[in-house]
Amino acid sequence: MEAFAGCSSLTNINIPQTVTKIDNKAYSGCTGLTNIVIQGNSELGMYDLVFENCTGLESVEVPNPLGGIQSDTFNGCTALTQITMGYKVEECDYAEWAPWGAPNMTAADVTWDT
After folding, report:
1. What whole-number distance in Å separates Cα of residue 39 and Cα of residue 107?
2. With 0-12 CB in 10 A as exposed, 13-18 as middle and 19+ as buried, what is 31?
3. 13, 14, 22, 76: least surrounded by Cβ within 10 Å?
4. Per the domain annotation, does 3 fall within a domain?
5. Which strands form 89-92's sheet, in the order they lie side by side?
6. Does some domain include residue 71?
7. pTM (2 decimals)?
8. 2 in a structural domain
């Protein structure tokens, strides 16, 4: 379900705690997207390539627990330099030292504010 895929006019997203699933490629190719806040809950899972090729994305904030992040959630997000995680993630995959597929990041670039 590529609900917002290719929507270049999106610049910021605030995903509320009531969301329990974000499907594959839901925001893929949203090149104008610069910031995401995912309020999250322990049921929320982000599936494959959710934010794939969001080349303008610079930061992601997840202040609450999260059910899971797939290894390639941020694949191709070349401007992404900061991910702030507020609490634990139940299932957390890393893709060859690049957090969740972000090519210009390492595990050291993820801040855990717990």
Report:
1. 21
2. middle
3. 14
4. no
5. 21-22, 45-46, 66-69, 89-92
6. yes
7. 0.81
8. no
